[in-house]
Amino acid sequence: MTTIDLSEYDIPGRGRGILDVFRWRYLLRLLVRKGTATRYRNSVLGWTWSYVKPGIQYLVYFLVMGIILGMGGRTENFPLYLFAGIVIVNFFNEGFGNATNAIVDNRSLVQKIYLPRELFPIAAVIVGFIHFLPQVVILLVVCLFFGWVPSFAGIGAALLGILIVASMALGLGLFFAGINVRYRDAQNFVEVIRMVSTWASPVLYTWTLVAEHVRGWALHLYMVNPLTVAVELFHYAFWESTVSDAGHVGFPARFDLYLVASLVICAVTLVVGQFVFRRFERTFAQDL
């Protein structure tokens, strides 16, 4: 009886998860190109919306928080403080939202051919990052207007903040993308998380205001939120060097521990998100 060696063949419809990204780089590039090309198709303003929407959001928040509620008088260079926080949170919201809908939006490909399904959420987060870059360019221009001086520490803090947000967006995106195929209610949970994200991190206010009213475990829970850590890293990178000693806020006490905890949370979120995604992946074609 002849024995056939099947060791070099893959199990149909199953891959190595996120690790397949390195093997299927060409397909990832195609998905990213498709996502950026079709985002503003048949739109008059096109990529200008990448500037218009965050600009309107910023003006509304500045009017309410900066002028009406007086944060502009209590926080030095509040326009820059606010903009730095909005930019990084917008990256999370867009990447997370895109990744959640990635499988449903690409149902025709998922149903017809096999390719690692993780490519869709990952490409969605990358597309969110691409649309995040124009906002960073505007942030840099505003920073220079306020007398910002770049530093290696500040640039490193910004890159670390981006890594934290991208990891969190991908982990949660994988988790909800898998569930969303079978249970479309997941999309509503995602919208709630995106709505709360701006208020659950020190974007519209400083962390010192939270510390004045919250104590103990609740304060620690707030501080280990990866979005809180990422926003504070962006404030350190782009805002801290523009204020005087009187307006200096600085990192919270034990921020190094909060940073490590947020990185652990991001890693756990990625692992759990990948596990849940692969469990639901088996029935994607039927559920779609």
UniProtKB/TrEMBL annotation:
Transport is among the record's keywords: yes
One Pfam family linked to the record: ABC2_membrane
Locations listed in the record: Cell inner membrane; Cell membrane
Keyword terms: Cell inner membrane, Cell membrane, Membrane, Transmembrane, Transmembrane helix, Transport
Membrane protein topology class: Multi-pass membrane protein
Positions of the ABC transmembrane type-2 domain: 45-280
Transmembrane segments: 80-99, 119-146, 158-180, 217-237, 257-277
Family listed: Belongs to the ABC-2 integral membrane protein family.
Protein name according to UniProt: Transport permease protein
